[in-house]
Amino acid sequence: MRQGSRAAASVLPALLCAGCAGAQSAFDTGGAQALGLARLMIFIMAVCAAVWLAVMAALAFALWRRRQEATEPLAIDARRQRRMSLVVGGSVAATVVIIGLFTVTSFWVTRSLWAGDRDAVKIDMRGYQWWWQVTYRDGNQAFTTANEIHVPVGRLVRIRLTADDVIHSFWVPSLTGKQDLIPGRTNEVSFVAERPGVYRGQCAEFCGLQHARMAMQVIAQSPQDYDAWRQSQLAPAAKPSDPEQVFGEQVFLSKPCAACHTVRGTSATAQLGPDLTHVASRSTIAAGVLETTRGSLAAWIADPQTIKPGNNMPMVALSPDELNAISAYMASLK
Amino acid sequence: MTSEAIPLDVRDRAIDDDTLRARLAKTWATPRGLWGALTTVDHKIIARRYLVTAFIFLALGGILAVLMRLQLARPESRVLGPDFYNQIFTMHGSNMMFLFAVPVMEAMGVYLVPLMVGTRNIAFPRLNAFSYWMYLAGGITLWLSFALNMGPDVGWFAYVPLSGPEYGAGKRADFWAQMITFTEVAALAVAVEIVVTVFKQRAPGMSLNRIPLFVWSMLVTSFLVIMAMPAIMIASSTLIMDRLVGTHFYNPAEGGDVLLWQHLFWFFGHPEVYIIFLPAVGMVSSMVPTFARRPIFGYLPLVLALVATGILAFGLWVHHMFVTGLPRVGESFFTASSMSIAVPAGIQIFCWIATLWDGKPVFKTPLLFVLAFLFTFIIGGMTGVMVASVPFDTQVHDTYFVVAHFHYVLIGGAVFPLMGAVYYWFPKFTGRLMSERLGRWVVGLVFVGFNLTFFPMHILGFEGMPRRVYTYQHDVPWAALNLFVSLSSIVLTAGFLLFFIDAIRSARRGVAAGDNPWGAATLEWATASPPPPYNFAHIPVVDDANPLWSAPETLTVAGGLRVDRRELVVTSVAEARPEARESSPANSIWPLLTALATTVMLIWSIFSPWAVVWGSIPIAIALTGWFWPKGTPEDEA
Amino acid sequence: MKHRIVLDLSELPQHGWDSASPTWWGTLAFELIEGTGFALAIAVYLYLYSLAPAWPLDAPPPDLGPGTWLTAVLLISVIPNVLVSKWAREEKVGRVRIGMIVMSVFGIAPLVLRAYEFPAMHISWDTNAYGSVVWILLGLHTTHIITDLGDTLVLGALMFTRHGHNRRRLGDVMDNALYWNFVVVTWLAIYGCIYWIPRL
Q1: Is B196 in the C-facing interface, judged by CB distances under 8 Å?
Q2: Of A187, A207, A234, the domain-final residue
């Protein structure tokens, strides 16, 4: 029994602290917004914990204090009543003060979350069941990608949020709090990433069958790396370089693929599904479901419904050669 | 007694005590057998039905929770597919909120309020019978749709556009919306009954400052039901209309608005949680004095706290919408109002602790549940203050942190008091005590199991785990805590199982309780356990707030009521001065028939709008039959 | 417990009037429920109005004719309504019978006018959100007229039977009149909303 409780005493704190680090943790902060939020959260939690402990102590004292013999239920001591009234009154007053403090600090942090109109990277994100369309509006050259955002370290990023079908929610906890994407409305979220790295996010508003598999990544890079990435994204798709890839491009354009997907530089310009111009440059496909490799691309194209049941990409019948070719072509679109 | 002719208008003063009880029992009887069960208007029988049904729904909802924890124990688990899981979490929430939590609290009110105010039946007894059938029909409709794989899968809150005509395929969301109509009709009916019972049927002398706190809490709750439920009625009806007849309330392309749904839903949804919580608060205020052997400290502040909570409850709803992009100053106002509800909550907690401090605690099972409630609910209240802060909420909204928060306040704040209340009033309902030994095990298992299951969810929320996800991937660090949570839920389940076992066993073989096994102070303990059909042989007359403590041996009563018809006293609202000897309706089949006709109309209207027209005709006929006078003595005026 | 009688209730009447009657309070409670529903429906109207670029959406303001006539009929109906209630309190069954027939006519007349009022909106419920909310406001109120009319007809019939001369029934007549006043007052709010907000 004692050994068990000792084991529990060591396991429990380890479990509790296990996730404080992590790419999707609100306390593993990557920028000023998330840091400000984390500090406010710790402050409020600390005060609340102290209040709870105080109330528990009062309760314990009330239950186990030494008392005289039991008296008649209705024998009321007026002086004791007055003393208790003072204590209760004081506790209520303290409650009011603490709540006032929380309200003011919260409002102050809220104001600082929405920074001014500096030289910001401007992005439009549109939520679809179950993926993210990302359009960079920087300068007068726009480009579209999906599910993965790159941002330069130290610069404000402002994201306009819209939704195509149902309500979604953009949430990358290590960078900032969430905002919903609501059909018929335009919302905005902004943050600065101060640490290079990969930050994971996930849709945080129930949006149907595959809500659980609608992740995204924010990759913070040095300004030079970001510019390089941006230039490569602006460029049209890589031309197929070997016969298998050429055949793959033909399959892509002749099959239903082109009815939903864009590959800039080809005749495929539809926008029902994610933009595939640089699909191989992204670290995952299907909104975070699979790591991008030629094999996973082939598996996804062959049977999207088994991997992510109910998603909007139909199964397209392909011969083994066609499948090989198209996966080679997709894997070449860096 | 046998040969002398009994005069037509027989008063209770004219006959001896035994004959009186026999005559009253006959006048107020519910006949045995099926017909009696279908026609009864006895609030105690109907309340027991409500309670049993609600606890069955609790068990069903618990099974759904176990299934969810099974699926979430491992990452990328394939125990349940996404469609089934989404139906399960929708059913779990909808079932627990609409089919368990609200009805069970209403049921305790329906049983106890008439007894606590010293009257013989609830106001509008046939409406009470009708409300139970509507509740049952709504519950069956929802579960039947789930069993047929047509269960709603859009969350208990059914946000549009996901639940709308474009993305909510089939009739799933319509079954959800119509279940709302059934349960809201039932809840509104009970609310009206309680308001009128408390206002007009109190024992002579029970002025406002002598009303038991549980009755106050049910009164405030009833007003919350009356003012909040119309919002969800409008919401669910307009949703059905968007889906069935092409209206555009929630269609932004034609002037509608997606957030309109959220405003309507949460305008109801926030008061809803106080509809669940306030009766529990009233139960705590009943049990604490009994087990502290002291009148409650701060009666007036406690009443004012109840009223303040009820009023404030309508000013908080936007805190469910903090991340929808509403204007920031507006959102901050709702931070202030949401946090301010901690003040009346604090008043109540401090008054209870003061009562315990001043008294001499008796550590029986009901008090142990009260202690578990204080420990747990205050944690939930603290996390409530946290989510009330807009910036804090942007990081925890729609995550497992919120799941932890609301289970702490709902289970800690409502279910623990409820379980304590069951141990407390079980002897009154059944005449037998539950087991004190098993009771301690139940408290222990449920308390430990609950905290081990739900506390880690706060951390999962901080680690980025959103709500309503049927699985999670290997690249997130949530697996260990989820497994821990799933294993801990076994302990919690065991506690609930033991609770059910104790209740069922004790109902048959429990130790016989007397009229007042706990030595409590309020009027329900002044009559037999279980009470006779007529509740009190004579209507009590009270002159303070703790009648059974101020005069333990003798109950002062009023005489002069008829025994040959169902009669009770109507008194004035403030001072409870007698105004009339009002009759109370006899047993009737019409509530059941009306409920059947309404059920047909409501289910038919899921499929066709014409149901509202043609289906109303049988309802009108049934209502006419209900109200047509039957020429019984109860009809005399 | 022993019982000690300290109060005698024998002389109390067997049924109370107005606030001494549970059904009077029940009627008030029902009015509170439905009133909240109407208030929320008007709030929905105002909410959609605040979001719209122009109001009404793709439709002219409703024709004033049928709605204004209906308002007049309802306002006039208050007179016989108050009289019926007064006669019921005075237990003048004969006059109550006539009054119930008059109120039945005053219940049917607005329904006839309402049939002209829906087309006067110049929009269908499924055209856009404006059409939907206007139809639901009219529809909600129509439901109340119909149910009150049903109540009036049944109670009126009862007044002609042996059950008519009973304080309980006369109290029901008074409660029904109370509810009709509520139907008229809520209409004034909806009339203002539907007809005059588009003309602001």
Answers
A1: yes
A2: A234
Instruction: Measure Cα distances from C19 to A251, B414, B512, C167 in Å.
Output: 82, 35, 43, 14
CATH of B42-523, picked from 3.40.50.720, 1.20.1260.10, 1.20.210.10, 3.10.580.10, is 1.20.210.10
How do residues A189-236 score in pLDDT, each as one tens digit?
Answer: 999 999 999 999 999 999 999 999 999 999 999 999 999 999 999 999
Please give the CATH architecture assigned to the domain spanning C21-196.
Up-down Bundle (1.20)
* CB pair distance less than 8 Å for C22 and B263: no
**Segment A83-109, tens digit of pLDDT:** 999 999 999 999 999 999 999 999 889
Contact B637 C11 (CB under 8 A): no
Instruction: Give the per-residue SS3 of chain C.
Output: CEEEEEEECCCCCCCCCHHHCHHHHHHHHHHHHHHHHHHHHHHHHHHHHHHCCCCCCCCCCCCCHHHHHHHHHHHHHHHHHHHHHHHHHCCCHHHHHHHHHHHHHHHHHHHHHHHHHCHHHCCCCCCCHHHHHHHHHHHHHHHHHHHHHHHHHHHHHHHCCCCCCCHHHHHHHHHHHHHHHHHHHHHHHHHHHHHHCCCC
ipTM: 0.96
Q: With respect to residue A169, please indicate whether it lies within any of the assigned structural domains.
A: yes
Helix (H, G, I), strand (E, B) or coil at A303: coil
Q: Do the Cβ atoms of A223 and A188 come closer than 8 Å?
A: no
Amino acid B4: pLDDT: 45
Query: Residue ranges per domain, chain B?
Result: 42-523
**CA distances (Å), C59 to each of A10, B142, B609, C43, C120, in order?**
71, 40, 25, 20, 11
What pLDDT score does A7 carry? 44
**pLDDT confidence bin for B8, thresholds 50/70/90:** low
Q: Give SS3 for B624.
A: helix
Sign of the Cα pseudo-torsion (A195, A198, A204, A207, in order): positive
Q: What is the pLDDT of residues C110-166, one digit of tens each?
A: 999 999 999 999 999 999 999 999 999 999 999 999 999 999 999 999 999 989 899
The residues pairing with B557 across neighbouring beta strands, listed in sequence order, are: B540, C5
Neighbour subunits, B (≥3 Cβ pairs < 8 A):
A, C
Report yes or no: A61 at the B interface, CB cutoff 8 Å: yes
CA distance B364 to chain A (A): 13
Min distance B68 CA to chain C CA atoms (Å):
37
Residues in chain A where the model's pLDDT stays below 70: 1-21, 69-70, 115-118
Q: How many domains does chain A have?
A: 2
Q: Does the distance separating the beta carbons of B515 and C22 come in below 8 Å?
A: no
Residue A249: domain span: 243-332
pTM of the model: 0.95
Alpha-carbon gap, residue B555 to A204, rounded angstroms: 60
Taking residues B43-56, report their average pLDDT.
98
**Domain residue ranges of chain C, discontinuous segments joined by +:** 21-196
Q: Is B140 on the interface with C (CB under 8 A)?
A: no
How far apart are the two ends of chain C, measured CA to CA in Å? 70
CATH number of the CATH domain containing A197: 2.60.40.420
| Alpha carbon distance C137, C141 (integer Å) | 6
Among chain A residues, CA nearest to B483: A15
DSSP code for B415: I
Kindly list the partner chains of chain C, i.e. chains with 3 or more CB atom pairs below 8 Å.
Answer: B
CB distance B558–C7 less than 8 Å? yes
Q: In whole angstroms, how far apart are CA C51 and each of B147, C29, C123, C197?
A: 41, 33, 19, 14
Residues 6 or more apart whose CB falls under 8 angstroms from that of B10 comprise B23, B562, B563, B564
Size of interface A-B (CB pairs under 8 A): 263
Chain B's closest residue to C136, CA to CA, is B238
Residue C3: phi and psi, rounded to 5, are -105, 135
